[in-house]
Hints:
By secondary structure, the protein is α/β, with parallel strands linked by helices. It has three domains: 3-87, Arc Repressor Mutant, subunit A (Orthogonal Bundle); 91-147 and 260-281, Periplasmic binding protein-like II (D-Maltodextrin-Binding Protein, domain 2, 3-Layer(aba) Sandwich); 149-258, D-Maltodextrin-Binding Protein, domain 2. It is built from eleven helices and eleven strands. The chain has helices at 3-16, 19-26, 30-44, 60-88, 101-111, 125-133, 194-206, 220-228, 238-244, 267-271, 274-281, and strands spanning 49-50, 57-58, 91-95, 118-122, 139-144, 151-159, 185-187, 214-216, 233-237, 247-250, 257-263. α7 (194-206) links the parallel β7 and β8. α1 (3-16) crosses α4 (60-88) and α5 runs antiparallel to α11 (274-281). The protein is rod-shaped. InterPro entries: LysR_HTH_N, WH-like_DNA-bd_sf, WH_DNA-bd_sf. GO terms for molecular function: DNA-binding transcription factor activity; transcription cis-regulatory region binding. Residues 1-59 form the HTH lysR-type domain.
Amino acid sequence: MDLIGGCRAFVSVSEAGSFTAGAAVARIPQPVASRRIAALERHFGERLFDRSTRRARLTPFGRDVLPSAKRLVRLADTLEHDARRARLRPMRVAVPDTCGVRELAELAAEARPLEVHLEFRIAPPGERAELVRTQEVRAALVAVPADEGAWTVPLGLAGVAAPKARLVHLETLRAGRSGGPRRHVWIQPEDDVPHIRDPLLRARDAVGLPPAQVEVAGSLTEAAAAVFGSTDLLLCSRAQAGELGLHWRPVGEVAPARGFAVAGEDAERLRGLSAAVGRCLGAEA
């Protein structure tokens, strides 16, 4: 039986002194209040009210159990209040700095009808995983190999000038091939992870480029500034290149890609917003 519902009707009727007024206090129809109290009496095996009078008078048994019924109703009200507060508690999510403000705002807006209130913390790959481990965030978009990720973001090389070829081959960046200054490839911190960085560096070595020609930048801003002022190239997604106004092409020797998975105590709730998360990451459909 509905013990809490029965106790709520019992307490309301006892305080109001009548079934009709008590039902109004409990915001339920009078027949419903009567049925709930009758079910409670069957459950206890004793009468709660003396029905031989016009008023709802408590029986001795009813007076004895009323304090406990009031405590149960108060606890139920407290539980419902705490549950509402818990649903409204912001869900902190660690995300890459490659996520755009508009896309994050759209993700947060899409989550609100589901009673999920998102707060975002920008962090590099290693720190996002640590924030989940220390429970400083309730979920994080962690970097994983592309074939292990729920979202995949292909990467290529982008520069100020539009390349003539369909692919950008690292071997074309060797000194003396272009006749101009040596061109660098900048890896942004988000891609300073083994499954992206190491294959690119191996390709660099295989085509004979010096180590400094393909290196990790201190920040995305630093890497983009270097590209804007030169013929250098930025390793990035197609979406990022579009935001920066750069021309993007796939890499000829390797096919780097970001992979993302969601980790943390609220991972499942974030997976329910998969399409919006993918837009934030720049994942291609």
